[in-house]
Structure formats: C-alpha cells, structure tokens
C-alpha cells in the first residue's frame, strides 16, 4: 500500500465531498465585508477568491495528468520537477507524478534561476511543471537545461516555450495507469542544504511517504469531518506531510494564499477549520493584532478550532503560554523533523504534554531517538549535551548521487541530525544548538555561506561572518558581522544597498561592523561570535525547533 491508495479510497467512498479548497484573499469579492455576511453558496461568487475540488475530481486530475506524462514518455524512475505556488493543482499534480512511477521533485519557489538549474541538474530531472510566477526565471535558463524534455505550464497564457496543463488535461483518460508500485520504490526527491549552502538531493521511498501519513494522523488524530488550514508552501516536507493527516482521515484541507492575521481568522471562520499549523511569526502577528485591537476575536467563529501546532523553527515557550491565555481551549503541539526524515514527526511533543512547552518531545510514532557523543556513543543521563539522532521508516534512502555526504549523516540506519540536544529528567528532548550554521528565519532556511560569499564581493569588505540573531517574531534573523578593509569606511546604508542584489529573504537584517575571528585552520569562530553578540554559548542556548 502507498499513499496513492488513500487517495483512491477517498475517491471511491467519499468522492463528492470537498477535498481541497484554495482561498486567495487578494481576490476577495468587493461585496464581501466580513465572513458573517458571506455565504459559500452565494450566486455569482468569483472563483478567483475561492476554488474547491472534491476527492473524486482530485483523483480524476491525478489520473489524467499521469496519463498525460506517460504519453510524453515518462517512465518509472524518471524525475519530474514541480515549481508552483500553493494552488488546487499542486497536490493532484504531485499524485499524478507518483502514479506514473516517476519521482516527484518539488522545488523551492524562492529559488533563483541559477538555483533552479542547479537543482534540476542535480536531481537529473527530465520534466518540469511550473506556474506563471516563474516564467521569467525559466525563460532565462531555457537554453541551458537540455535534459528537460518537456516544460508544462499551469495557468493562462502559456509561454511559447512550454505546453499547457489547463488546456490539455481533460483530453487524457481518467483511468488509473497500470503501474505497479511498492513501498521500496523511489518516490520523491526533496532539497536540503547545510553550511555550504549548496542543496543536496534527498531521496525518499514510498515507504517514507506512507509512514509519514500514518505518523501525522496518529499524532494529531485527524478524523473525517475535520478541516486542516494549510498556509506554508507545499514544496516543503512540513506542509505536505501535515496535510497527509487529512489524506488518511479523508477530511477537507484549505490552502490559504496569505498570512495576514485577519485572513487567517477569516478563513478559520468561513471554512470551519479545526486544525491549523502556524509558524512562529504568524502566531506572533495574530497575538499582536489582537492586543493592539486591530482585530477582535469576537468578530470571528473559532469555537470549532481545537488544535494549533507550530514547527519549522525554534518555538519560544513564552509565546505558546501567551497563545493559550487567548485560546485556553486549544490543544497545542509541536513537531521536530528534517527533510532527511521526511519532515515533521520523528520527534513529537504530543497534545497531552502541554506542560512541557519548550521541549520538542520524545520519539514520534514508529520512530526511535538517541543523543550521542562525538564518537556516537549513546548518552542517557539528563542535561548532558550531545548530537540528536533519529531512526525510523521516514529516514531518507540517501543523498542522491552523493555517497560521501550520505555516509556523513547515516550510520546503521540512524540519521545524525547535526542538532545538539539533551534530555530532561523525564526523558523529554530539548534542543540546545545546531552543529550546522543554518539560520531558520520565519520557517525558511538561510545559508550563511551564500550570504557571506555575496557580501565579500564588495570592494570595501575584508571579511564577513553571518550568524543567526534572536528575533521575537521570526525566531532568528541573519546578522552580518563585517570587517571593513583598512583605511576604508562603510555604512549600514551602503551594505543594505549592495544587498539588493540578493533575494529579499536572504538579505541581512542586522549589521555589525567588527573584526571577524578565525581559528588557526582558517575557519570562522561562529560560536565565539554568537556568545559576543547574541549573549549565549553552546550549552546555554535552549530553544525548540
């Protein structure tokens, strides 16, 4: 059995029920004033604001797209990349790829054109599905991605170098392709990156996807009739694997294309959402808006909302305690995971352990954990720091075409996370620091080396180090410690102007002019910088992920 079977079973048993809803707040009808004055069955509703598909149509599109791909020569084991913003088409396309026996390869929608090309080449992709937001980036690399046999465009006004998904999809059979799949078959490639900033291709089998679905439903107990509000991007393992709980329970999910507090509460009210996954900045924004009086809780229908869970970055315990004062009837949960462990759930707090806010929990359903010293000997005593390792059915098969990197992280089926952690007296795990220098800001990973390399191109900069700086809203922000060349001067405005050449999310938000310490081997002493500028050292830093 694979996750495809869940979809097909839902189509057979509850085919006319709504599976997915897409809400685009920027397309809200003018006569829509508040959710109370709006009816989902109002005649003449603009489908630009709210679109939906049933389980039957979900499976229908997946089959048709699978047959479309097969007609273009897709074979079992081929790699098909997805470069789309969240939309109703995203998940049916993903499942259509899986039904051909090919591997789905989701791409980060923030990738530059060079990063897109790098990942397409790294994963050996032969096909690419992309949306309107990416026309310019794909057009720029069209002539240098010769391995891509077909470019398929989702949306109106198909560019000349691609073919249309929308205009062709219904011409193909909706019969399920006759492709045999088992749990050991390759299913998907996701991308991750360490301190080097160069993405690695993470290969997962169908077993990982299937067990991720089972684990998610076990943790959050989704049932038929629930409604999951999904806001984070589906290219990320976190969003998709949390949605898998809706897949297993045959319950509705809503894709919200926006993060304003009023949009979130409005959608919770309109769609009667029961389960919402938020990132730390959005939790902060909702609470701040309520406290300022910008929005009023009594203006929304939230009585059916029972579970709020947070993940993808460190979660301040004080923030959750503040949330539970406003929403005292909410169950709260947090999950820890990596793309190498098929996303969230290998470590899990559990809704019954809210008194342990600050911990990431214990081993998740079907998972094992351990904390080890530098020689990978297990540490069992409380409060002793070591590296967290996890083991379970969601561990990656390997880094695709990178045996050396695979051996560095996998040993005897254990995945060494690179995160430093410790147990408390009750066996709950607390993260202390990350061995890797990845900065997690607003749920997105920033890679310091990329930012450092860019800034070093400035003729006034002698050396630069980028570290994560604590931030109440985003968890961390990129802080650049810049050493200016002797005899030269530089201002923050100059650095900010120079940084405009980087994508917005990569630009440093804090700038410090100072010397950059390096050890005898030439490596930047980032622990020392964190201690100087952030006020903590390795053992004292206690945050959750």
Number of helices: 14
**Whole-number average pLDDT?**
90
Strand content: 25-35%
Helix content: 25-40%
First-to-last CA distance: 32 Å
Helix/sheet category? alpha/beta
- CATH class bucket of the largest domain: Alpha Beta
Structure description:
With 545 residues, the protein is an alpha/beta fold. It folds into two domains: 3-310, Rossmann fold (3-Layer(aba) Sandwich); 439-534, ANL, C-terminal domain (GMP Synthetase, Chain A, domain 3), CATH 3.30.300.30. 28% of the residues lie in helices and 26% in strands. It contains 14 helices and 28 strands. The strands form six sheets. A nine-stranded mixed beta sheet has the order 2-1-11-10-12-13-14-15-16, with helices on both faces. The radius of gyration is 23 Å and the shape is globular. The two termini are 32 Å apart.
């Amino acid at each position: 059995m694979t996750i495809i079977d869940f979809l097909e079973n839902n189509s057979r048993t509850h085919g006319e029920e709504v599976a997915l809803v897409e809400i685009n707040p920027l397309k809200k009808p003018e006569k829509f004033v508040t959710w109370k004055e709006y009816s989902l069955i109002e005649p003449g509703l603009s489908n630009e604001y709210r679109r939906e598909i049933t389980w039957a149509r979900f499976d229908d599109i997946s089959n048709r797209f699978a047959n479309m791909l097969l007609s273009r020569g897709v074979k079992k084991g081929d790699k098909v990349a997805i470069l789309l913003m969240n939309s109703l088409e995203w998940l049916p396309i993903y499942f259509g790829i899986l039904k051909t026996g090919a591997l789905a390869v989701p791409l980060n929608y923030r990738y530059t054109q060079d990063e897109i090309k790098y990942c397409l080449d790294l994963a050996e992709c032969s096909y690419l599905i992309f949306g309107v937001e990416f026309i310019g980036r794909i057009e720029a690399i069209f002539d240098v991605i010769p391995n891509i046999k077909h470019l398929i465009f989702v949306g109106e006004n198909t560019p000349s170098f691609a073919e249309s998904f929308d205009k062709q999809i219904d011409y193909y059979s909706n019969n399920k392709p006759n492709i045999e799949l088992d749990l050991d078959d390759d299913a998907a490639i996701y991308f991750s990156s360490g301190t080097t900033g160069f993405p690695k291709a993470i290969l997962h089998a169908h077993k990982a996807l299937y067990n991720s679905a089972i684990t998610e439903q076990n943790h959050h107990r989704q049932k038929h009739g629930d409604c999951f509000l999904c806001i984070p991007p589906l290219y990320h393992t976190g969003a998709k694997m949390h949605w898998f709980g809706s897949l297993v329970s045959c319950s509705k999910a809503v894709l919200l294309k926006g993060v304003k507090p009023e949009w979130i509460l409005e959608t919770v009210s309109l769609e009667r959402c029961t389960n919402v996954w938020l990132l730390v900045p959005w939790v902060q924004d909702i609470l701040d808006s309520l406290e300022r009086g910008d929005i009023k809780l009594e203006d929304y229908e939230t009585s059916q909302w029972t579970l709020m869970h947070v993940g993808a970055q460190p979660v301040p315990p004080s923030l959750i305690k503040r949330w539970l004062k406003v929403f005292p009837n909410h169950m709260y949960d947090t999950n820890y995971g990596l793309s190498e462990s098929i996303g969230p759930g290998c470590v899990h707090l559990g809704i019954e352990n809210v008194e342990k806010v600050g911990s990431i929990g214990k081993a998740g359903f079907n998972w094992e954990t351990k904390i080890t010293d530098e020689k990978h000997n297990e540490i069992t005593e409380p409060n002793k720091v070591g590296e967290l390792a996890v083991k379970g059915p969601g561990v990656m098969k390997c880094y695709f075409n990178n045996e050396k990197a695979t051996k560095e992280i996998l040993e005897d089926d254990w995945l060494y996370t690179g995160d430093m952690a410790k147990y408390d007296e009750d066996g709950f795990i607390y993260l202390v620091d990350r061995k890797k220098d990845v900065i997690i800001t607003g749920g997105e990973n920033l890679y310091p080396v990329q930012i450092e390399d860019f800034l070093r191109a400035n003729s006034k900069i002698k050396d630069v180090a980028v570290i994560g700086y604590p931030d109440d809203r985003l968890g961390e922000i990129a802080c650049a410690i810049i050493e200016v060349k002797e005899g030269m001067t530089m201002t923050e405005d100059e650095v900010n102007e120079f940084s405009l050449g980087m994508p917005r999310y990569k630009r440093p938000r804090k700038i410090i002019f100072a010397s950059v310490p390096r050890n005898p081997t030439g490596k930047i002493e980032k622990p020392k910088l964190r201690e100087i500028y952030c006020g903590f050292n390795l053992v004292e830093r206690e945050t959750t992920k």
